Amino acid sequence: MGTIIDFLAILATGALLYTINRRRKPSLPLPPGPKGLPLVGNLFQMPAELQWIKYHEWSTELNTDVLHLQVAGTDIIVLDNYNAAADLLEARSSLYSGRPRMVMVMELMGWDFNFGFRYYGDYWRKHRRLAQTSLQATAIKQYRPHLAQATRKLLKRLLDERDDGNLIPHLRQLTAETILSVAYGIEIQQENDPYIKLSEAANQGAIIAGVPGAFLVDTIPILKYVPAWFPGASFKQKAREWHKMTRAMTNLQKIEAGEKDDAFTEDVLRNTLAALYSGGSDTTVSTIATSILGLLEHPEVVKKAQAQIDSVVKPGHLPDLDDEPSLPYITAIVKEALRWREVTPFGVPHALSTDDEYKGYRLPAGAIVIVNEWAMLHDENVYADPFEFKPDRFIDPETGKIDYSRARDPGHACFGFGRRICPGRFMAFESLWLTIASLIATFDIEKAKEKVTLPSGEEVERTVELTHEYDSAFVA
Ligand code: HEM
Predict the structure, then answer these.
(1) What's the sign of the alpha-carbon dihedral 226, 231, 232, 237?
(2) Which of 39, 171, 193, 267 has the fewest Cβ atoms surrounding its Cβ within 10 A?
């Protein structure tokens, strides 16, 4: 029954859009895109995963930097190249700073508190201002003691539990401690703190549901009115469970106990904190984990970094952020991790507010605009051997210093574009840098020698597979 309703809704939406489109009589063509079916467009061609690879293949086949897809009446524009992203999202940022409607996440799961998902307007502006002021490059220097403390606690936990083998919970604890102590002076005392657990569960829901096309209700919003008991409407039950977690995450008492700034109301503070926590935790955890994967594959990189640390940092001391200019190889490792397996391969979608024209094409108002960061960060004209983990690509062999004329700073794409660019990017860099430097200074990073026993009893070598859920980033 659910399927019949879905189908009728697709037909109705398609027919309506067809009529509107006929009336509009566009003068310019839409950008090239794969040929779709009548009414539903490319709905059935949309990849369920690794979308960025398919988008790049289509762009290459059609020889275009700007790709057009249409999914049951919704226009999607994919920007496959840095210049197109800069021309539109930065040079015309007043048109391209919206976010698409996300029915599942925002309207059913309660994520409308998060300015990162909000339309471009007053709510977004107010929260963004607070986030940006607190996290700008000069402001974050004051948080360095918090970063140092959280990093030292991480090292201690790892030293105490060397045989545990699962690094991810420790990294989560690290990012939670950092962000919460920076934002509100909240000290997390115990491991497995309930706030961290709750936030993870809520975040995980948003990650799953935030992937464009993950739930049909995003494509056909009217489905949100289908009652939860209705056959085929299991998404409503899922949304209800996730909604409870979201609410609990934003309402915890300890946030009220934090310091308050008179310029912002308690709601703005609370919602901004939750947005920063959700924007900053998984991304940072995942990038540290990626760095470690790269280092595991390249013991020579670890050795080189350790030698540099030994030549700069006094014996018995740990590197700190003041050492950053003298430890370019650590910077190169962090930059390579941000590029090699970037956390957000197609960024966070933007939305176009009014009709626009670009390179002779019409870009329709309301289109979802996706930036293919993966394609930009794996462009072999910019990064030789783009799928290899090679921090040396950023280093001038003569001087040993960073030289972005050899390979572009991945920061040009990995943190997004225009007015929506990641406000946490400076803090992310400092936090990644300090963690990686401290881990390399303290530990040898090597692959586990022992094999893994599968449930079948078979013994196999450890391998790595990346998933959407970072829990399973290190799998047998
Ligand atoms: C490796 C680390 C990180 C990466 C790769 C990353 C990447 C991104 C990207 C691609 C966007 C979307 C930009 C756009 O729409 O064009 C974004 C937005 C955002 N990020 Fe980050 N981020 C990271 C760390 C952080 C941290 C540490 C924080 C907070 C302390 C943070 C908070 C946010 C917020 C709140 C937004 C939404 C901004 C808005 O819509 O105005 N991120 N990030």
Answers:
(1) positive
(2) 267
The binding site for heme consists of: 422
Contact by Cβ (8 Å): 33, 67 = yes
Residue 280 CA to ligand 1 centre (angstroms): 7
Instruction: Name the closest-CA residue to atom 25, ligand 1.
Output: 280
Tell me how far CA of residue 71 lies from CA of 11, 34, 192, in angstroms. Answer: 12, 12, 42
**Which helix (DSSP H) or strand (DSSP E) does residue 106 occupy?**
none
Residue 202 has pLDDT above 90, yes or no: no
Looking at ligand 1, which residue's alpha carbon is closest to its atom 11? Answer: 422
Tell me the residue type at 445. I
Closest CA to 434 of 182, 76, 265, 247: 182
Residue 229 dihedral angles phi and psi, to the nearest 5°? -80, -10
Q: Which atom of ligand 1 sits closest to the CA of residue 276?
A: 29
Cα–Cα distance between 326 and 318 in angstroms, integer?
14
- Residue 452: its H or E element: strand 452-453
- Distance from the alpha carbon of residue 415 to the mean position of ligand 1, in angstroms: 6
What integer best gives the mean pLDDT of the chain? 87
The structural domain count of the chain equals 1
Measured from the Cα of 347, ligand 1's closest atom is: 10
Q: Which residue has the higher pLDDT, 407 or 1?
A: 407
Which residue would you say has higher pLDDT here, 210 or 162?
Answer: 210
pLDDT of residue 467: 63
Which atom of ligand 1 is nearest the CA belonging to 427?
27
Query: What is the span of the domain harbouring residue 290?
Result: 2-472
Please name the residues in contact with 220: beta carbons below 8 A apart, sequence gap of 6 or more: 6, 9, 10, 13, 72
CA 19 / ligand 1 centre spacing (Å)? 38
CA dist 24 and 213 (Å) reads 27
Q: What is the CATH number of the domain that holds 282?
A: 1.10.630.10
CA distance to 13, 18, 25, 139, per residue, from 40 (Å): 9, 10, 20, 49
Distance separating alpha carbons of residues 396 and 382, to the nearest angstrom: 16
- For the four alpha carbons of 157, 160, 161 and 162, in that order, the dihedral sign comes to positive
Atom 41 (ligand 1): residue with closest C-alpha? 420
Q: Give residue 471's pLDDT.
A: 36
How far, in Å, is the centroid of ligand 1 from the Cα of 430? Answer: 14
Q: What is the pLDDT of residues 383-412, one digit of tens each?
A: 999 999 999 999 999 999 999 999 999 999
Residues with CB under 6 A from ligand 1: 116, 128, 131, 135, 179, 275-276, 279-280, 283-284, 287, 343-344, 347-348, 350, 414-417, 420-424, 427-428
- How many angstroms separate the alpha carbon of residue 427 from the centre of ligand 1? 10
